[in-house]
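Workshop exercise sheet. Pairs work together: one partner reads the sequence aloud, the other fills in the structure field after running the prediction. Swap roles for the next sheet.
Pair: D.N. / O.F.
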Amino acid sequence: MIFAELPLTECDGAILAHSQRVGADMFRKGRVLTEADIAALRMAGLAHVTVAKLEADDVAENAAAQQLAEALAAGDPHLTLDPAFAGRVNIHAASAGVLALDVAAIDALNALDEAVTLATLPPFAAMVPGQMAATIKIIPYAVPRALLDRALARIRAASCPLLRLHPYRKRRIALIQTELPGLKSSVLEKTERVTGERLAAMGQAAPIATRCAHNSDALAAAIAGARAAQAEMILIIGASAISDRRDVIPAAITHEGGAVDHFGMPVDPGNLLLLAHIDGNTAASSSPSPSSPGLTRGSASAAEPSPADPRVKPGYDDSGKRIIPILGLPGCARSIKLNGCDWVLQRLLAGLEVGPTDIRALGVGGLLAEIPSRPLPREARPSASAAPQIAAIVLAAGRSSRMGSNKLLLDFGGKPIVAHVLDTVAKAGFAEIVVVTGHQAGKVRAALAPHADIRIVEARDYAAGMAASLKTGLKALSPRIDAAMVILGDMPQVSIDLLHRLIAAYQPLEGRAIVLPVADGKRGNPVLFDRRFFADMAQLDGDVGARHIIGGNSELVAEIPDEAAEIFVDVDTPEAYRQLLAGNPT
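Structure field:
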């Protein structure tokens, strides 16, 4: 590839390396120059521009990235690919599950040449549909065919896929809680509710919940009952935390014929996790239980650590025995907050094996508790492995001064324009939806009556401009929200697909903290902003919107290509409304 400043006479078909202002237009870097472009550059007074010119053995960045992404996702129906753009292809989860990586093979691919890069989420990240799992990026505008072939060969020759999404599998799960005098029933009820929510996030039904006294006999009987009920996984939360391999919970497991595989984990919260398993086919053991767990201390026991590294997963072992994993959960599992138990549960429910070696390897990055040195905005944010909480702020407060009547209430396909927008937004999966009204607030609220699950707030100072509406919307968001997408209420052609692509591109830790659509080199709406910008947005005045925030943080902006009609067409004037109806006669 040739990369140089060349005279315009040699630039036909070349790739513009640096953005250029040409009259009222902006020619952005990466643009393939045509004869008309060259004429416009010449009219702008330019004689030379810096360009990249592909040679005979070069493969353009988009084509190279697409081929690599297809090789990486080959054969995995749970991964989807975005179209190549600017040398990048993003790989997304199509299902909820756990991302497995061949770290050594990924390192080897990244070591091949600086022109080829693959970035992924951490190994065993919990994924939700639409979440980005990885991105392949070609750094220059093209790579030699020989290099691309070596990269493809390295991917295809790997002993296992470099990345795979293992979807959650539905399991019949039993939850056993032990009781001691003084333990409030409200605590047990909350634990059942929280456990149900935790499992629901992993695609599971509510567990079969039972309670028993906190002693090994009663718990062994409860485990036998769970086996008889054909449970495929058993979760046990004790009234008292497990303090030893011979404590009540492990003693009950071994008495019933199970085996303790590992106790303790280098994750906080979650240190006191117990991993065990039991044969799902064998009848309950008839051996006597210890009268007290303390009497076994210092004696040989089936609960003693084994030198082997057993690996556990729900299903059947090599001999055809049905295996039921058992997790003894620490007290932190009574809270919905992320803890080490989540990491083990996620892997097991995705059909992955878990053993002592896997648990011991969780120490680096295993400190999950908040610490004073963390900046305040992180306190209300989920962990990196959780899906970000993204809200939609729909601005529907304007006076429609150029229209002459309230444009939001104009009929389009049998319903008001603003109702079309909300229909789309409501299906996009936002954590919260806030609609900001102002002018004719009562009529706008009435138009949105079918959407009972949205929050409508009124900007009483809406006449001061868009900034007033935006600030009202921001104030209405809950503290758990990580980012907000600002959507105009008069753009009925915005699609669910665009909203999903904007959400999927949001990765603030990777430098994509503002996400917006672009067509023909121009930026449009909606725009997604990370929470870090909320304070600056709350200081805006007038009708300028957040353009200067976007311009002042260009290194954090991600542009998503889209169709001009979708991201530019709003209904500001009678002519715009006529054109909308003409293009959409229904």
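Discussion prompt: The radius of gyration is 29 Å. What would you look at next?
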